[in-house]
Amino acid sequence: xxxxxxxxxxxxxxxxxxxxxxxxxxxxxxxxxxxxxxxxxxxxxxxxxxxxxxxxxxxxxxxxxxxxxxxxxxxxxxxxxxxxxxxxxxxxxxxxxxxxxxxxxxxxxxxxxxxxxxxxxxxxxxxxxxxxxxxxxxxxxxxxxxxxxxxxxxxxxxxxxxxxxxxxxxxxxxxxxxxxxxxxxxxxxxxxxxxxxxxxxxxxxxxxxxxxxxxxxxxxxxxxxxxxxxxxxxxxxxxxxxxxxx
Length: 246
Fold this sequence. Notes:
Radius of gyration: 17 Å
Largest sheet: none
Helix content: over 70%
Distance between the termini: 37 Å
Number of helices: 11
């Protein structure tokens, strides 16, 4: 239970009280529950969606986008912005890490976040409600699982919030998380969901290894970027096939 609560505390702003001492190994062990937290977040958003069908899709989509950002505390969007600034603003590893470490958002980061949010909004609007509620659950589940996959890479920076996750990450937990995520896809989207899972997985692996090629590893910011890209890529693939199961 402690590891589940750690994951919930780290990935959301939901009030979570943990009375026990938290060690670095506990942070890494909480990776097992990351996909489940994604399902919970997606479930909350789906409940809002299905209980407000009387609203137009643009309004509903804006609400979903707003609530999803609030629930995560903007953590992953911040990482995505920093990654855009670092990777677009420099070539050397040292310079990229220095830019990402800067708390100020630059032009590339601002542009990246705006375009990302526009893409999310467009995908939400384009999907029928009976498909969108499933898409929210699987995309948030897969995005949080993708974060755990990143933790198999070396940590590129000397310090950071995610360092303990990477240092003590266990392959067993990540494999179990992957099986859980695959089952969620299969239950909600059927055989097409299995296909979407593997295609999304490959696309995100490509980005993860691109990150590794640029900075010789991973950082908390790039993990946040992977989360956002995983979420959008899953939604986009569902959009491509939505007419076949709506």
